[in-house]
Write a structure and sequence with these properties.
Elements (H helix, E strand, L loop, with lengths): L2 H5 L4 H9 L4 E6 L5 H12 L5 E5 L4 H7 L12 E3 L3 H6 L2 E2 L2 E4 L5 H14 L7 E5 L1 H7 L6 H14 L4 E5 L6 H5 L2 E10 L9 E11 L8 E5 L6 E2 L20 E2 L4 H7 L2 E2 L3 E6 L8 H13 L4 E4 L14 E3 L7 H19 L3 E6 H26 L3 E9 L5 H5 L4 E8 L2 E8 L5 E6 L2 E6 L2
Parallel strand pairs: 1-7, 1-8, 2-3, 2-6, 6-7, 14-18, 14-19, 15-16, 15-17, 17-18
Antiparallel strand pairs: 4-5, 8-9, 9-10, 10-11, 12-13, 19-20, 20-21, 21-22
Helix pairs in contact: 12-13
Length: 452
């Protein structure tokens, strides 16, 4: 993996923070299980030279660190994992193992002795990045909670002087004196995502908040992230790219691929005659069209055709794609428009010699025909699908505020919900039930990464 790819796992504000000045200090806050240790290790790997990491811990032995995060072995040699509870570490700060009190004030010479002992335990290296995990645990084992601010200040001053980056990991969330001492502060959280309008579907999201990076602008303060695969990865704000061209996915035993392998694995390939629903919440706007585009392109690449009634202003409706026919109702008469739609579908099916994929914006139908008329029209489309071999599958697309949503959702085979989280595009399945996925796109197409 290239160094730039390591950096792509960390928000750019944090990368810029460590690259701006030598000897930066960062406080990583969050409740247990929020991913603080993995973030600290990921930053070390993105910023540090190979073998130049120093991990001072009260809870993680070398073998456990390598089991949980094997990708860090080359950056933190076993000798560089220091047990902060050792008696010699206590003595370096003027503490006696048998006595909870401090025997001399914390000053520069004390800190120098402290690091001299730590470096004696570690391999030779120049200006390593140091992780204290957890800083609360270090202070507790040294019985120095009351001296937390003084000790933190002296360590930060020392590390700035020797141009060594430092990360303090803490399990408290509130603001304390050390927040004002360190150069940067980030907080990790696990939050509940509100459910679909048609059911109490709740998912857990992970969020990193950049509260402070001294001397630098914070262009985006919050990002969605995941710990999938035991790695930290943040999600950039999602923007669709409908210029991507990807390879088609195979047809298997009366089922059609969505053209997105990750989605096929999440919900299964599409059975012939299935009806699906994509529900979009506020803030998603047209960004779901990235997946719709890939679905259409996969159908066309296998020799099929698509007839779509998109929402007004759809990008796909403006692209003039071969064998993708865009059809907007021209009247408010349900019977006339049923016949018109059937004609368009039949003409395309005769040309491609395969059943047609159709996608239909419920918002467009509701604006044109009203709720009652739109339901009648949808009922006619279903009859066409059930009574003829013209349509392979129907996909409804609806905003979460659509009056048609509840009626349609009760009868579909697949129901996906799209939402915006800190600029990232996410989705989850209501039917079938799935975890939350972050949506990304590259030259190979759309990818879904579990948010865990």
């Amino acid at each position: 993996m290239k160094r730039t790819e390591w950096k792509d796992r960390i928000p750019p504000e944090i990368i810029s923070f460590f690259e701006a000045f030598p000897g930066q200090s960062l406080l990583v806050k969050g409740r247990p299980g929020t991913g603080k240790t993995i973030l600290a290790l990921e930053i070390l790997r993105a910023i540090c030279e190979e073998g130049n990491g120093l991990y001072i811990s009260t809870r993680m032995e070398p073998h456990r660190l390598y089991v949980t995060s094997p990708w860090i072995r080359d950056f933190i040699p076993e000798r560089n994992i220091i047990n902060a509870t050792q008696s010699k570490v206590r003595r370096s700060l003027g503490l006696e193992a048998h006595h909870p009190g401090r025997t001399r004030p914390i000053d520069y010479n004390t800190i120098l002795q402290f690091f001299r002992v730590i470096y004696e335990e570690a391999e030779d290296m120049d200006n390593p990045m140091i992780i204290f995990d957890s800083w609360d645990g270090v202070l507790s084992h040294l019985n120095m909670e009351e001296e937390a601010a003084a000790l933190t200040q002296e360590i930060c001053d020392f590390c700035r002087e020797v141009e060594t980056h430092t990360i303090f990991v803490t399990e408290r969330e509130g603001t304390a004196a050390i927040d004002f001492i360190v150069d940067g502060v980030v907080t990790l959280r696990r939050l509940r995502l509100g459910g679909s309008e048609v059911g109490p579907e709740h998912r857990v999201v992970r969020e990193i908040e950049i509260e402070k990076v001294r001397g630098l602008p914070i262009r985006q303060s919050r990002y969605l992230f995941t710990l999938h695969g035991g790695r930290f990865r943040f999600f950039k704000p999602f923007l669709e790219d409908l210029t991507a061209r990807v390879e088609s996915a195979p047809y298997v035993e009366d089922r059609y691929s969505t053209g997105i392998p990750d989605l096929d694995r999440a919900v299964g390939q599409l059975p012939v005659g299935n009806v699906g629903l994509w529900e979009t919440h506020y803030g998603v706007n047209k960004r779901y069209e990235q997946m719709l585009f890939q679905l259409c392109m996969n159908t066309v690449a296998k020799g099929g055709g698509v007839v779509g009634i998109p929402h007004m202003g759809s990008s796909i409706g403006k692209m003039n794609l071969e064998n993708v026919v865009i059809h907007y109702p021209e009247t408010e008469d349900v019977n006339v428009e049923t016949a018109s739609f059937l004609s368009v579908v039949r003409n395309l099916q005769e040309r491609v010699k395969k059943p047609i994929l159709t996608f239909i914006s419920l918002d467009t139908l509701e604006r044109t025909f009203g709720v009652k008329g739109a339901l009648n029209l949808l009922d006619n489309f279903l009859k066409i699908s059930e009574e003829t071999n013209l349509i392979s599958s129907i996909l409804y697309i609806a905003g979460s505020e659509s009056s048609l949503l509840r009626s349609v959702a009760n009868s579909v085979d697949i129901h996906l919900v799209f939402r915006d989280v800190d600029g990232a595009l996410v989705l989850y399945g209501v039917r079938p039930v799935t975890c939350l996925y972050g949506v990304t796109v590259d030259e190979k197409g759309v990818h879904l990464t579990p948010v865990v």
